[in-house]
Amino acid sequence: MILRQFAQAPATHAAINTTFAPTQMFASDTPNVLPDEVTANINVRMLPGITSAQVVEHIRRVIDDARIKLRIVQAAEATGIASTVSPAYQQLSQSIRQVFDQVLAAPGLVIPATDSRHYQALALQTYRFLPIKVGKQDLNRFHGRDERIAKTAYRDMIRFYYQYLINSTAPAVSPQRICELMRAFKQRVFAI
């Protein structure tokens, strides 16, 4: 049922499938000259469990033309799936519930590429989470015109990180010290 629902909207469809997005195409410099060569860059976001070799093979099969050459410009395998029973996930989930009323914390796929891929060799578990509420109207603004988040979303994000710091550092750092640091941080942020 969930997969059927996700498949109906582009934003959630991308969370359950490997995606292919042609991002650049180059051909003739002028409209009345046939090009000697045409190139296209395709940005691929792989679903965990899919390899870059499988992606290349899929593209070859779809194109089905030996004259077209494929070249991988940059490749990274899909990141691993982090545990939902680890203490780190439990702290993250607890912090989400404490800040966002009536929100269920559930694992999912983060569609955009994040810097977490660079830490796969260093960390046993990598969690990607941005604590902002996003409405349908916000989706088209990501990396587009008028990219922004609401002030309330920004404040909720600060509240989340504050709570997460308390949950993840206790008892190593006293809540009083965290409060002092966050008060100083808030004064700087909200003074902007």
Describe the structure concisely for a colleague.
The chain is mainly alpha-helical and 192 residues long.
Architecture overview:
Helix content is about 40%, strand content about 10%. The protein has a two-stranded antiparallel ribbon with strand order 1-2. The protein is mostly helical and about 190 residues long. The chain starts with a helix and ends with a helix. The mean pLDDT is about 85. The protein folds into 2 domains: about 1-65, no CATH class; about 85-190, DNA polymerase, domain 1. The chain has helices spanning about 1-5, 10-15, 50-65, 85-100, 135-140, 150-170, 175-190, and strands spanning about 20-25, 40-45.
State the assembly state of the protein chains: single chain
Structural class: mainly alpha
CATH architecture descriptor text of the largest domain: Orthogonal Bundle
Quote the CATH topology of the largest domain: DNA polymerase, domain 1
- Domain module tally: 2
Number of DSSP strand runs: 2
How would you sum up the major sheet?
A: 2 strands, antiparallel
Approximate shape: elongated
* Average pLDDT metric: 83
Which value, in Å, is the CA radius of gyration? Answer: 22 Å
Strand content: 5-15%
- Output the CATH class name of the largest domain: Mainly Alpha
Q: What is the ordering of alpha helices and beta strands?
A: HHEEHHHHH
